[in-house]
Every structure is written in C-alpha cells, then in structure tokens.
C-alpha cells in the first residue's frame, strides 16, 4: 500500500502529461481515458506482482484524477464555446456518447451523490471514469457482485434523473 | 434529501421493482406511506427502467469525445492538409496535397490517434513500407508516404480515391443481387492479388472499400494494420485494436495472429451486409466479456431471413465464408469468388453441395432496445424522427406477432368447429365441452394478440417519447425544438391511433390508455405546475381535451361504472386548471361545471365513496373553497385517522383558513388544528424533516396571529422558535434550498417583530442574515424567490433604519428594495406573493415620505 501511496505524485504527473498530450492537443478529437489509466497502471507496475488492495487503491486514485482532468477540460471547452470563438463545424463523431456539457452535469450530480451516499459515488467513479468491469468494481469496493450491480443500477437511475431533471427542489 | 431519505428511497425503489409493472403505482403509494415526500422521486426512478446505455457503454468515459477543430492548413511532413474528410477508428483522415509540388494530385493523409512511439513506427515502416509500396494494383490505393512529426504525431499518406463507401454505393443505386455480387467479385479478386503478395488487409469493411464514378472498387488501408503492429509496446497491451469489431473474425477477436482467413471472414461479413443492407451483428455496444463469448460461438440471423429475396445458395456461401472455424471457411478469397460465380451462372454452389453448414442459430441480439438506447445522446443525435422510425418498426413487429397469434387463434377456431360437428354427430357431451374449451382458448389467444399490439402501439410510442426521450432531452442544451417535435410526434401518433379506433373499438381499456397518454402529454406541453413544460399551452389544452374525450369514450362503453365517471371528472378538473392558467374563465367554468355535475351524481349514488370524496376535495381546492376542502379532508381523515398524507392534506386546508381574513379567534382555531395534525403526522415519523418543516408553518401562523393581537414580544418569541427549528433543518441538510429559503423567511418575520419592539440591533442582524442567504441562493430557486428574499431583507433593514431615526439609510434601502421588486415583476411578469406585496406597498409609502422630506 505504501509503495502505491508513494507513487501518487508520480501517477498524477504522468497521467496529467499523458492526458494533456492526448486531450490537450486540439488536433485530436477523441481519446480513450480508460486506456490511459490502464496503460499507466501497467507501465508503473510492469514486472511487479501487485496485491489487489494496491490495485483497487490505484484505480480509485486514477479514476478520481481522470474525473478531475476530464471535468477541467470540459469546463475549459465550455468557456471557449461561450467565449464565441467557436471552431469550424465538425463532422459528426461516432459514439459521441457524452459531450462536455453532459460531463459537467454528471460531475455535479456525482458531487450530490457523494453527500448522500459516498460508497455509491465511488462505485460510479471507478466504473465510469476508471473503466473497471462490474467484477473489478465489486472487488475494489469490497461488496458482492450482486450488491455492486444493484448499487450501480440504482446510482444510474438516480444520476440519470438528477441530470435530466436539472436540480428539482425537494 | 438526507442520507436516511436516500437509503429509504433505494429500499422503496427496489421493493417496487419486485412488483409486476402493472401494480407498481399502487405499490409505490403503499411503500411511500409515511414517506410521502419521497413518492415523486421514487416514481420517477422506478419508471426509468429502459435507460440501458446510460453510463453503460464499455468504459463510457473512454468514449468521451472532445470535439476540436480540424487543423486544416497545417503542414505535416511534406504534406499540406486541406480539409478533414473522415474519421475512423485509428484517426482522422485529411485531404492533402504535396507541399513541395513533387506529387501531382491529391492524397489522403491519415493522422493516427493512438500513441505510436515514433521510433518504433519508423522502424516498422522501413521494414514493411517497401513491400506495401510494391503492391501496385488498379484497385488498391497506393501507400505513398508515412512519418512522424517532431511533436510525435504519426501519419500515413495514401492515394486519394474519390467515391462512396461500397455499402452506400449499393444502397444509393439500389443495385440488384447480381450487380452487387459482381462488384463483390472485383473486391475478392483484389484481395486475392494482395494475398498472393503475402499481404493481409486485416481490416476489410465498407468504409475501406471506395467505389469510384466508374463503378470500380478501390481498397484503401491495405496492410496498414500490419504496419501498426509495432506501434504499441506489447508489454503495456493497451488494448488498441487495428481492426473493426464487426468485421473481425472470431480468432481475431480472441487475439490470434492474423492470416488470410481473417480477410475471408471479413469478406463474408461484407457480402452479408451488401446483400441484406445491414451487418449481421453489432459488437461495438457490447461489453468485452460478451464480445469474447460471442467470439467463442458466433450467432446471427441467416441472410434470407433478413432479406427474403435471397436464396438458400446465397445463405450457404455467406455462412461458409463466415464459418467460425478457419478450416470450414473458403480456403481463399478466390475460392469464395469462384463459388459466387457458380451461383451467378446457375450452378449449384460448392458450399451447399458439401453441406458445409454450421448451425446458424437465430441471432438474438442483446435486444434491439439495448442497441437503440445505447447512449441516449446517440438516439437524440439521430433526431426524434429516427427514434420514431425505430419505435414504429418495433410496433410493426409486434403487430406482426399479433397477426401470427391471431392466425393461431383461427386455426384453433377451425379445429373447434370441426370438433363441434363431430360432437353433434356423436352427441357426446364430452366433445362439446372440449369444443367450448378450444373456443375459449381461441378467443383468449386472439385477445392476447390484440392486447399485445395495442400495448405496444400506445405505450411504446407515446410513453417512449413522453417519459423517456423528452425528459432525457431536457438536460441537452438547445433541445427545445427537438422536445417540441417529440411531443408533436406523440400527438400525431395518438391521433392516428384514436382516429382509427373511432367507432370501431369497444375496448374500454384502450381508451383508458389513450386518456392517460394524452394527460401526460398535456402536462409536458404546458402544465403550469410542471417546471419543464414546453410552454405550448394551446397544445396542452388540446391534449387535455382529448384526454377527456377518451375518458368519455370509456364512460360510454361502461355507463354504469362509477370509476369511469370519476375519471372523466378528474380529466375535466385538469382541463379546467389549464383553462384557468390561460385566463379563459369561460372554458374553466364550463369544464368545472361539467365536473361538478358528474361529481354530484357520483356523491348522490355513493356519498361515502372514498375516491369520490378525494376528487371532490380536489375540486374544492381548485375552486379555492378552502372550507369545503378542509371539511372533505377531515372526513377522509376520519376514515383513515392514521394516514399521514391525509393528516397533511387536512392540515393544509386549515393553514389556508388560518390565513384568511376572518375573526382572529377562528384563525387561531384553524392554526391550532393544523398544528395538532402536523404534530400527529410528525409523531408517526419522528424527526422527518418535511414534517418538521410543516410544523414550523403552523408555528409561524400562530406567531402571526399573536402579533395581530398586539403582543409583538410574544410573537417574537414564537418566531424565534420557528427560526431555531428551520436552522436545525438547514444545518442538517445545507444543500436543501427549500429549508434555506424558509429559514430566511423566518428570519425576516422575526426581524419585523424585533424592530417593532425596539430591539433594533437584533432586528438588523436577522435581516442581514436573511439578505446573505438570499444572495447565496441566487439562481437556485425558481420564480425569483431568492430575489424576493433579498428584497424582503432590504425592506426590513430600511424599516429598522427608519425606526432608529436614520432616514437617509432607510430611504436608500427602500429604493434598493423597490428596484429588486420591480425587476422581479418585470422578469416574472406576475403578481407578487402576498408578503412581498405588503412590503412593496410599504416601501412605496416610505419612498414618497422620503421624497416629501427632501422637498
């Protein structure tokens, strides 16, 4: 655990660099955030045997960093858009599942979920930003697969409602 | 919402999901008993069922797309990029020309997305490039150049071919089967040529096969996948795939080394798609484990079941090319071509003769819904029209299923009749009984079939549009026109449906469905209490009218059903509300009149029927007859003395009555009853924040009455309690804007009493805090409520300053308060809430005093 802890500043630096290289360059239109996380993890851990605790700990941190980077960038894009100087229209992109606005909405909804149920928020972060599979997520959060699935399902419903309804007054 | 609420909500939602869909609404009401404040949210969460896809695509964030401008005009190596012409799995493709003029004509430059280490790439290019450069064939786009920029961008330059992807080309020209097969033969020959040079394409797919104006196919990206092999450090295994999932052979999916057999498989998929107009399966939306399972045993529909004009021979050829085992596939592209030529010339195909079938189980895609809903954004991008087409197709599918079931029913009926004849002949009672049973079965089967079709026609379209797509579209900026379109489409569909039913159907339940759908639609279009309504009040009115019409059709079919009558009355009340919101008092009056008439009949027949009482209470509330409403609520409460929501409803009535301009003693009586009811409600759920907040309204009302008796100090004491409770609620749930807003209101009431008793410093503190809260709430409340708080606080501060003899400050603050009040009036275009109105008048008074003083 401590070894991984010590890696965090480096992880952050590396990841940031990698992400900036791909995300930051206006030349590129898409990037695979998850593969960045996995790449980095494998690069750092190459040749070492890693305990599960370390792994889940790492992915937890990486998912958080990835979320921060993506949100930061989405904010910048949004500001850019509002600032007028919009780049030329683009061809439609396949699989454009989330755009910057969605991402910001998700981030906000996740912040709310964190207040209400931090465990579920963590699960969503791991799965969505960390790209973990359901099984990995269950293991990383220390719950059974069935419970993880149930939590995931409920979180999705709740987030979807939160994001689509704006912020309804209670 | 608190953590406890959230936990409770989850429990409720899951308990409700265990219940069959049809009983869910009732189950929710039951489950939320004691947690009424969660009901709305629980309903919404339960009904979100078909949200497959949301956050669900494999590594959804991985697909997060950041759009950026194509950097046209940039120079890459010796190439001048002119414009972006396409995007693929590997990167962006630009139209380019040679910057130094050494190459006439245009080229396609592919800039790679993946992190390709420059040195490794160049190494690989040196090794493979020569081979590829020698691959000269009129139907293969030549590799011209490749390189890495100083910034680390890798790119590949190819001959540019103008034309259309082969699938588009076939579709646009609606090519016949023979024409399509002939084009495909040219493709096979080209692939065979490359295979002869020991080069495997590895990524054959429609977008890599461009057909030019002369109808000649050109294969692009030949060998590129191989070129990229060394691109990624094997140790890191990034999962980068230089092939497209849908065209990859099972062994490619499983990560085995590439051979010519992969290209043969891809050709099979391509042939399938060109002949049927759709790919045999879509893997892109599956999770990795599913893809791997698929690779172990691929299943899909045989071509002739998709496109009926295809023969069994074509099925056989496609299936042999797509055989999961390499050994069962055509050995070469040439052999595939040869068998197709046999087919074209009318000879039996080898694939069939050899009986090389593999069991092609019907491909059960995860389900079409999953694909269509994969990422609502995608659906939305398709536009409402696309979604509707899909739904319509689905409805047709179910209609077809219904016809099939009906045919079964007819067969049963025929059998029944035959047996009936036998029964007469033998006069055997036993056979007659059997006949009856069969007849019943036939009818039941037919009924089931039409019920199925009905269910899907009404529900799937209207519900999909209104419940799923429309709410989803709310969060998408600028989607209002789209939402409008969806609502319009739903109307169109419902109109068609109810039109075709006119005078034909005697199916009361169908009419009930239509009524429900119109009611929901109306709410989306323009229900003033629905914060996300589209502002289409006319459309809402029409929908509500249609809802009443459909409910009346139910009543016509079931004239003696009091519930049918009650539903008409409910619909009329909703309609009247809409008329009211549109300031059409005549329409509102007529609808209300009809509702009253029906309700009178109903209460005469069943004076104590609970549902009728509830509707009557709703009517009274709507008509602002609060004493009638309160009386009815109390009656209902006597039927269920422990029902928390009824306690709340009754308390609400008493609250309204306590605020009316009636003698103080009566007001006090109502306030005390409200207090009593709200206390009882709170006792059933101790600590419930909503119930506690309810109670503070009653306390506040009591304080207000005390203040009116002249006991300002007593009032201040009670308001202090109100503030204390609300502050607790706020501290426990700071994100809850409603608690915050109410705390501010309490502070303002308290401040007014303090100012009146001369405690000016404390009054100022209270107003200042309210003002800070109001400013912090900016934009978080609807209808300018935060501004109302600020204006109220400023007004209070002005009053306090005046009481302290500081006229200058008082006038300045009154001016500020009035400015804000005017702005609220302007933006909301509405009349003020009562407290603000009082303040407004007071501040205007104050300003005229100030003006007089200045003179």
Key structural traits:
heterodimer, A: 170 residues, mainly alpha, disordered C terminus, B: 855 residues, Transferase(Phosphotransferase), domain 1, three-stranded antiparallel beta sheet, 33 helices, 64% helix
Description:
The complex is a heterodimer of chains A (170) and B (855). By secondary structure, chain A is mostly helical. Chain A has helices at 2-24, 33-45, 52-82, 100-116, 118-129, 134-141, 145-164. Chain A has one domain. Chain A is globular and about 35 Å long. The model of chain A is unreliable at 1-8, 21-34, 46-50, 81-97 and 166-170 (pLDDT under 50). Chain B is mainly alpha-helical. Among the domains of chain B are: 3-49; 75-369, Transferase(Phosphotransferase), domain 1 (Orthogonal Bundle), CATH 1.10.510; 750-854, no CATH class. In chain B, the strands form 2 sheets. Chain B has a 6-stranded antiparallel beta sheet, covered by helices on one side. In chain B, a hairpin with a 2-residue loop joins strand 1 (75-76) and strand 2 (79-87). Chain B is elongated, with a radius of gyration of 37 Å. At the A-B interface, helix 1, helix 2, helix 3, helix 4 and helix 5 of A face helix 1, helix 3, strand 2, helix 16 and helix 17 of B.
